[in-house]
Design a protein that fits this description.
Helices cover 50% and strands 14% of the residues. By secondary structure, the protein is an alpha/beta fold. α3 crosses α4. The mean pLDDT is 94. It comes from Acinetobacter calcoaceticus DSM 30006 = CIP 81.8.
């Protein structure tokens, strides 16, 4: 299906591939020869996509998955080698810091995207790939996917992903996983709260994805955006002010188009008009 107008003008390389099915955008990490390791081009491309769809009400969800049967093996070590040359030329370690911070900015952008972000996990889910999972709204994984934070074993630190991992699973679990650099599979990822669902084969994985998409379509588009933004604010704002503002948003929602349609659909025992899309 043709991409939304907000995406058609993008000039991105082939480190990612985009497909769209109605209100659902599929973003494929597309470097299978390196197990979809993230290089700067991929980070830039992901940022461009999420910037383009920020105000696009026609896109309700973004599904992120990896080509070649694996999600993402982390950051591309080859980029580190190239940065070593740049750092030597300028006589400073700043190129490393700039590169690393750029990745963190991408994670912030995905986490705060108004669309529902779903990750489908197979194969390697390591380092930066693990961080990308931690900023998703819904994570569905194969049982045999390989998760881990291997940074300390490479003599580096999970600098940008650490805050997102802690928010996802809590400080105690984050300490254990990061300091041991341990590898683990889907059941452990489910147990510690990294992911939400496990599939035991490819067919089950696709079925769970389609069920999730149908549930996303049943939720009112604007209400979903407002709910996601409200949930993000709960971590940073004083409770009294947040509840006052949330009450005003609730009133606007009830009196708005979606609230009136949703209420009427409930009374008439039918699906609301936003759930009609197949």
């Amino acid at each position: 299906m043709t991409l939304s107008k907000s995406l058609q003008a993008l000039d991105i390389d082939d480190s990612i591939q985009l497909e769209q099915d109605g209100s659902i955008l599929y973003l494929w990490l597309n470097r299978p020869e390196s197990r979809n390791a993230m290089n700067l081009n991929m980070v830039n491309a992901i940022q461009q996509v999420f910037a383009a769809i920020q105000d696009d009400l026609s896109i309700r969800a973004v599904i992120i998955r990896g080509e070649g049967g694996t999600f993402c093996a982390g950051g591309d070590i080859k980029d580190m080698v190239a940065l070593r040359v740049e750092a030597s030329n300028v006589g400073s370690l700043q190129p490393y810091a700039d590169f690393n911070r750029h990745f963190g900015a991408m994670l912030e952008q995905v986490e705060t995207a108004p669309q529902t972000v779903v990750v489908i996990l197979e194969g390697a889910v390591l380092g930066g790939g693990f961080g990308l999972v931690c900023v998703s709204d819904i994570a569905i994984s194969r049982d045999n996917a390989q998760f881990g934070l291997p940074e300390t074993g490479l003599g580096i630190i999970p600098a940008q992903i650490a805050p997102f991992v802690v928010k996802r699973i809590g400080l105690t679990q984050a300490r254990r996983l990061a300091l041991l650099g341990m590898r683990f599979e889907g059941p452990t990822a489910l147990n510690v709260g990294v992911i939400h669902q496990i599939a035991h084969n490819e067919l089950e994985l696709e079925q769970e994805l389609q069920e999730t998409i149908q549930q996303i379509k049943r939720a009112a588009p604007q209400a979903s955006r407002m709910t996601k933004a409200l949930l993000q604010r709960t971590l940073n704002e004083p409770l009294n002010h947040l509840l006052d503002d949330a009450a005003q948003q609730f009133a606007q929602a009830v009196g708005g188009v979606e609230g009136q349609e949703g209420t009427m659909a409930f009374i008439q025992k039918r699906l609301p008009n936003w759930a009609d899309e197949q």
